[in-house]
Amino acid sequence: MEQVNKGARILVVDDEPQIRKLLKVNLQAHQFEMIEAVSGEEAIYQISREHPDLVLLDLGLPDQSGMDVLHLVREWSSIPIIVLTAKERDADKIAALEGGADDYVTKPFSMGELVARIRVALRHAGGAVQEAVLNFGRLRLDFAQRSVELAGERVKLTPTEYDLLKALASHAGKVLTQRYLLQEVWGGHHYESDSHYLRIYIGHLRKKLEEDPTRPKLIMTEPGIGYRFTLQDEV
Question: 3-state class of 104 per DSSP?
């Protein structure tokens, strides 16, 4: 795992000197290299010229919206982007995720959580989620065999339950919006009123996989947004 992260170059796009200083100290302490940009224009220049491994992008920039930067970058790059936002509205977070962000962190944030999110994004960029077998502690998913084991015992899932678990586990550590999961598992066009399908099947999975379904540790709810399948190193 550390080999994935060691020496990774992270571009921090934020116009607040205090935030950049805080991030520089902490990122360097975790063996990351940090470069900086204070505006959207500078961010686009740095991404195109310096080719960082990951971007931490503040949405409130002096020259243009961070969302505009996100959309522009996504036209030509799949670089991992984690949005830093002081906005609490679920709609803003959903817009960032559906606009191409890999994740978001709300200010003020925990450095431990941010570093864990960075590691997840770098791991995804490295292609680890394309493996045919995924292991999450006691849980083992074999995509080739369409099988799921918990503590060595086969877990019987319906086709829909399996497809939902596969979607979540394949993006472990990332927030997946309700709309994305509905589209991925059920296909077609879905609306807010269809989210009850998702809640029902999430409940089924928790009953079959969680030690205590009322206090889930694998499949976490991101209120108003969607769900996140957790990793062992998340804080």
Answer: strand
Token pair of 94, please?
């959903």
- Considering only CA atoms, which of 191, 190, 214 is closest in space to residue 202? 214
Cβ atoms of residues 39 and 82 within 8 Å: no
d(Cα 212, Cα 87) in Å, to the nearest integer? 32
> Is residue 187 predicted with pLDDT exceeding 50?
yes
Fold of the domain spanning 130-229: Arc Repressor Mutant, subunit A (1.10.10)
CA atoms in the 13 A half-sphere facing the CB of 69: 31
| Torsion sign (Cα): 162, 157, 196, 85 | negative
Phi, psi at residue 9, to the nearest 5°?
-100, 125
- The domain ranges of the chain are 2-126, 130-229
Q: Which amino acid is at 204?
A: H
**Residue range 2-126, CATH number:** 3.40.50.2300
Domains 2-126 and 130-229 share a fold: no
42 alpha-carbon distance from chain centroid: 25
105-153 tens-digit pLDDT: 988 888 998 998 999 889 888 754 456 788 888 999 988 788 999 999 9
C-alpha closest to that of 173 among 94, 103, 81: 103
Cβ atoms within 10 A of the Cβ of 38, count?
18
Helix axes 111-125, 17-29, angle to 10 degrees: 70
